[in-house]
């Protein structure tokens, strides 16, 4: 019997299923996400490597310091995003990665996601954007109808340390009506729930100062209740000067795999 608890078991089964479906001998470039669920994806990659079921020259693109360690520890080769050629020149796509497998903090019914609980969402989004396909893996607690329904720690927003408190004030003045799609505020549906979002500077353990990302920036966790229009909220936050990246991934994922409480696996696409 497995010694993993239910949540860890569900992360592991989602990760194994997604790797088995998407990472075979024909995959040459793989994006590797960050977080505790991705650790199980790396475990499966190591097994597949030992079974000679991976491309002999597989290159892995990390999304964080942790992710690079996972790649190296699995005996795989890490590559930088900018060192990779386009996969389909002339096609209109700029993808350089076959598939990326990454975790998520919450995934809604339309495959929009909140990411950045581990503070790696800038590089995660860059790698996802350069991928032909983004596949999310998560335990059952992250499976949601509407973003913000289950994840209660706010939307992670990576910001410049030069102006974090000014950015915090601007984010807290955001209004729920969408102003970014050319719709008058009176007619627009609410993009998010709260009238006044609350933005909290992420602190290191034991209040040892702000968390500093792999890129030297700070993180504001912005609580705004339910997010009804993820794209509008993503655009709205990105318009604030000094915001480097927002942890809303609107319409980027092609699939999400969830380990269920009863031990089964669900795939949404
Ligand atoms: C890091 C992330 C992670 O993928 C996300 O926080 C999920 O982490 P975990 O698998 O530990 O629940 O976005 O920036």
Description of the structure:
- Pfam families: Rib_5-P_isom_A.
- InterPro entries: NagB/RpiA_transferase-like, Ribose5P_isomerase_type_A.
- One of its GO terms (biological process) is D-ribose metabolic process.
- One of its GO terms (molecular function) is ribose-5-phosphate isomerase activity.
- The chain is of the alpha/beta class.
- It is built from six helices and 14 strands.
- The radius of gyration is 19 Å and the shape is globular.
- The protein binds ribulose-5-phosphate.
- Ribulose-5-phosphate binds next to α2, β4 and α4.
Topology (elements, then pairings):
Elements: H1 6-22, E1 29-32, H2 36-50, E2 59-62, H3 65-73, E3 77-78, E4 99-103, E5 106-107, E6 113-114, H4 121-129, E7 134-139, E8 155-159, H5 164-172, E9 198-201, E10 218-223, H6 230-238, E11 243-246, E12 248-249, E13 255-259, E14 265-268
Parallel strand pairs: 1-2, 1-4, 2-3, 4-7, 7-13
Antiparallel strand pairs: 5-6, 6-12, 8-10, 8-11, 9-10, 13-14
Bound molecules: ribulose-5-phosphate.
Ribulose-5-phosphate (5RP) binds at residues 33-37, 102-105, 115-121, 124.
């Amino acid at each position: 019997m497995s010694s993993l608890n239910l949540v860890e078991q569900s992360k592991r089964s989602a990760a194994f299923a997604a790797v088995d479906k998407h990472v075979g001998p024909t995959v040459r470039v793989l994006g590797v996400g960050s977080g505790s669920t991705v650790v199980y994806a790396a475990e499966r990659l190591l097994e597949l490597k030992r079974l000679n079921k991976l491309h002999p020259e597989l290159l892995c693109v990390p999304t964080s310091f942790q992710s690079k360690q996972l790649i190296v520890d699995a005996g795989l080769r890490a590559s930088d995003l900018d060192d990779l050629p386009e996969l389909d020149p002339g096609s209109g796509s700029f993808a350089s990665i076959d598939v990326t497998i990454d975790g998520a903090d919450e995934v809604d019914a339309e495959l929009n996601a909140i990411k950045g609980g581990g503070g790696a969402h800038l590089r995660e989004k860059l790698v996802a954007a350069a991928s032909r396909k983004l596949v999310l893996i998560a335990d059952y607690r992250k499976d949601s109808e509407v973003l913000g329904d289950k994840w209660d720690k706010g939307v992670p927003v990576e910001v410049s340390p030069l102006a974090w408190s000014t950015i915090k004030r601007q984010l807290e003045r955001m209004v729920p009506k969408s102003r970014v799609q050319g719709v008058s505020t009176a007619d627009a549906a609410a993009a998010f729930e709260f009238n006044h979002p609350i933005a909290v500077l992420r602190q290191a353990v034991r209040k040892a100062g702000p968390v500093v990302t792999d890129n030297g920036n700070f993180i504001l966790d912005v609580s705004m209740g339910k997010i009804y229009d993820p794209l509008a909220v993503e655009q709205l936050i990105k318009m604030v000067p000094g915001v480097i990246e927002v942890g809303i991934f609107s319409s980027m994922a092609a699939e999400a795999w969830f380990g269920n409480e009863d031990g089964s696996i669900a795939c949404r696409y």
